């Protein structure tokens, strides 16, 4: 593979602008650039979860997700580029279905925690939900974002299912919300 980046420090963004893949200069706080950064953040959080996983079904699914997210961020660098596809949404649906197949039905709300990997999956899930909201706003301006919005909606579900899958695999009881532990507002 040829060197893609020979120089990392370019100083090109010192004035608060950056370049898109087509050379267009945009403000670093533009919605597109913010979204690219958020997707990178999600990919990093998923990387933390992967670092705490053994090889297996969740690990494999999340490696594929990392590639999808990298592709999504890359596509956002090129105005007009398609942002994921129906095949991406189908792959995430299939992964979620496979992981959920042998999990017990939910009877209570689940709180993040129980083990580090489970908590990291929940952090990634919440970051994913934030990005889904941002993509929803972005999709108002760019119809190409429809599959990305669907993908992120399904991804947050996959991350929740993955946390449950790992709890079961590790033999760790899920942390359940209990009404008796909550203070009820009376005023």
Describe this structure in words.
With 187 residues, the chain is mainly α. The chain has one domain: Up-down Bundle (Hypothetical Protein Ta1238, Chain: A), CATH 1.20.1200.10. It is built from 5 helices and 4 strands, in the order ββαααβααβ. The strands form 2 sheets. A two-stranded antiparallel ribbon has the order 1-2. The protein has a two-stranded antiparallel ribbon with strand order 3-4. A hairpin with a 5-residue loop joins strand 1 and strand 2. It is globular, with a radius of gyration of 19 Å.
Strand content: 5-15%
Q: What would CATH call the class?
A: Mainly Alpha
Please name the CATH topology.
Hypothetical Protein Ta1238, Chain: A
Terminal Cα span: 66 Å
What order do the helices and strands follow?
EEHHHEHHE
The percentage helix is 55-70%
Mean pLDDT: 90
Second rung of CATH, namely the architecture: Up-down Bundle
